[in-house]
Write a structure and sequence with these properties.
Elements: E1 3-9, E2 24-31, E3 37-44, H1 47-52, H2 54-69, H3 78-87, E4 94-96, E5 99-102, H4 107-121, H5 132-144, H6 164-183, H7 212-220, E6 223-232, E7 235-244, H8 246-257, H9 262-266, E8 273-274, E9 279-282, E10 293-296, H10 299-306, H11 324-333, H12 342-354, H13 359-366, H14 371-377, H15 384-403
Length: about 400
């Protein structure tokens, strides 16, 4: 299958809004043996972003062409289309040469959200959908509340409320399903046009970062003596144990000093760490954006990794698939409230910027494909150091200007 491509600029960046506009367009075109043309376009903030996404979009176009060639006449209801989507474009990711060429990485979570959509719409005919159905789902999902774990067994009115961001994720999938249904000829028009159900501005961006004092307590919680409580034959038992968890300490430092995601840490291989140069290479197959990047390794991270029992071996650095329990214990022992592991990554980006590193470089080190992601979710002004640094810069600028003023004003 031959597909031609073109990348071109549609306008200027920024403007008075200060936002980074998606002005670069990638267009892929396929012409079959009957001269039937199929084209799709996508927008990006930079030309390089468009180049990096070509293979993914080619796979998407191929899937689109293949779906057009299939007999989808039997699909009439939303439930039927949703089940088809889970098997087709929402299937597990296929990785070739370090790039995702089909499917999605987070297919399990996506399937859960699709099942919730099916619960809401069920056997509703696709032909009966309108833009107001996005609002219908939004109201229904907000009324459902938090359905995770044991909370899901409660009556909806007894559950905790959920965030707008949670609802928006389901709405984004619903919108994509309806657009794909239109592209496949199952819906006469794109019914999502004009819908304002997805309210990104209503999302509350998380700003939690780790303070210096909390950092000391968190790292100290990985070693030393501690008191624990547990239930035994109906009685609460207290015991003092000697804790020594160097792997967890290394995990924390990789998140805090190198900005690695949880999944990137768990898939880290010894061969990807350059101890001499102090650089860690994160392969595209292990990242959220499928883009390989390099990050700095601090001296204390280097020392902690070198102290691990499996140092200088081959294979994975960490001999486990998760560290939720160890993390929960550590923050409990350190007496730290409201801290998520991902907040270490936000702390990393915030510290970079407070240290004078540009937001562009910070975004590259964090592996963000869009600069606005760094601006919205990883720049915390709740960190006192950031505010104090801003104040000192303003004071310095003011002093410089005042010093240039004449001694007297005529």
């Amino acid at each position: 299958m031959k597909i031609s491509q073109s990348i071109f600029n549609r306008g200027k960046k920024g403007g008075d809004t200060g936002r980074i506009e998606k002005t670069w367009t990638l267009r892929l075109t396929h012409i079959d043996e009957r001269e039937n043309k199929t084209s799709k376009t996508w927008q990006y903030a930079t030309k390089q972003d468009a180049k990096d996404d070509v293979e993914n979009r080619k796979a998407e176009l191929i899937q689109h062409i293949e779906r057009k060639g299939l007999d989808l006449g039997d699909i009439k209801t939303f439930k039927q289309w949703a089940e088809y989507a889970k098997r087709d474009f929402y299937r597990p990711a296929i990785i070739k040469e370090g790039r995702k060429v089909a499917g999605i990485k987070s297919h399990r979570q996506t399937h859960i959200l699709i099942d919730q959509l099916v619960e809401c719409f069920g056997e509703k005919p696709l032909s009966k959908f309108s833009k107001y159905d996005l609002d219908r789902y939004k109201i229904w999902r907000l009324e459902q509340g938090d359905r995770r774990g044991e909370k899901g067994k409660l009556e909806s009115k007894e559950r905790n409320t959920i965030k707008i961001s949670t609802v928006n994720r389901g709405l984004a999938i619903l919108k994509h399903l309806l657009i794909e249904a239109h592209d496949a000829g199952l819906i006469a028009k794109n019914v999502t046009k004009g819908s304002k159900a997805i309210d990104a501005d209503a999302e509350t961006a998380r700003t939690r970062t780790l303070t210096d004092e909390e950092e000391m307590r968190l790292l100290a919680s990985c070693v030393g003596k501690r008191m624990i409580e547990y239930e035994r034959k109906g009685n609460t038992v207290k015991a003092e144990i000697e804790a020594d968890n160097p792997h967890l300490k290394a995990v924390i430092l990789l998140g805090l000093d190198s900005g690695l995601r949880r999944g990137e840490i768990l898939t880290l291989d010894w061969k990807d760490i350059d101890f001499e140069a102090g650089i860690i290479k994160i392969l595209g197959t292990h990242t959220k954006t499928q883009r390989t990047r390099s990050v700095p390794m601090t001296n204390r991270t280097k020392a902690e990794l070198a102290s691990l029992a499996n140092f200088d071996k081959t294979g994975r650095v960490f001999p486990f698939n998760d560290f939720k329990r160890s993390w929960a214990t550590a923050i409990k022992v350190a007496n730290i409230n409201g801290l998520h592991f991902h907040d270490l990554r936000r702390t990393f980006v915030t510290r970079l910027q407070s240290g004078g590193v540009s937001i562009g470089i910070a975004a590259e080190l964090a592996g963000h494909s869009r600069l606005e992601t760094t601006q919205k979710h990883y720049t915390s002004t709740d960190n006192a150091a950031v505010i104090q640094d801003a104040a000192s810069r303003i004071n310095a600028a003011n002093d410089a200007r005042v010093n240039q003023w004449p001694d007297t004003i005529e």
